[in-house]
Design a protein that fits this description.
alpha+beta; five-stranded antiparallel β-sheet; elongated; 42% strand; 188 residues; Immunoglobulin-like
């Protein structure tokens, strides 16, 4: 009986503890959350997801092709929805984070129009341990203004791990070269 209550307590506590995200955790999004949505006269093309930290600074932005698009007939109406997973980056600022999504549609096969369904998901992010932070991705974002747009790319781990790996390789190469130059004892 006591062991059962202990497991129940641990289960309930772990469900409350998992309400916040940390570095390396994945946030799953379904857009729109209610299921499929209908768009008239414009074919849904992609969703631009923007990850904002607790200070409303853009951390990462990605254009994701829509998972499901169904033509309702003659190209006049489309059912669509999208699902996407984004990972919390290393060394996050704790607090309320957001993911904003915006649908872009194709009109006359040339122009991208923003859709009428804005998406926003808020969640709480905590600091993590040093190991969690080193193995969480690093996102790099550079806003080049109206004409240049925003440049984004991601490393699957923190950039300091790359520097540590390069330093270890250099030390191993130096050690091997010194070992190869050391004199060999002669037998008499």
């Amino acid at each position: 009986m006591i062991i059962g209550l202990l497991f129940l307590f641990l289960f309930v506590f772990s469900s409350f503890a998992s309400a916040a995200y940390g570095p390396g955790d994945t946030v799953h999004m379904k857009y729109p959350e209610s299921g499929t949505a209908l768009v008239l006269l414009m074919r849904p093309k992609y969703v631009r997801y923007t990850l904002l930290d607790s200070t409303d600074t853009v951390v990462y932005e990605v254009d994701h092709d829509i998972v499901y698009v169904h033509d309702k007939g003659l190209g006049l109406a489309y059912d669509w929805y999208d699902e996407y997973d984004i990972t919390i980056p290393s060394f996050p600022t704790p607090g309320e984070w957001k993911v904003k999504g915006r649908l872009y549609s194709e009109f006359l096969w040339v122009i991208d129009f923003t859709g009428p369904y804005p998406f926003e998901k808020e969640f709480y992010v905590e600091e993590g341990t040093i190991i969690e932070n080193l193995f969480a991705p690093s996102y790099f974002t550079w806003d080049m203004g109206v004409t240049g747009g925003r440049i984004n790319f991601a490393l699957p781990f923190h950039w300091s791990l790359l520097i540590i790996a390069i330093a270890i390789i250099i030390i191993v190469i130096i050690a091997i070269r010194r070992y190869m130059k050391s004199p060999v004892p002669q037998r008499k």
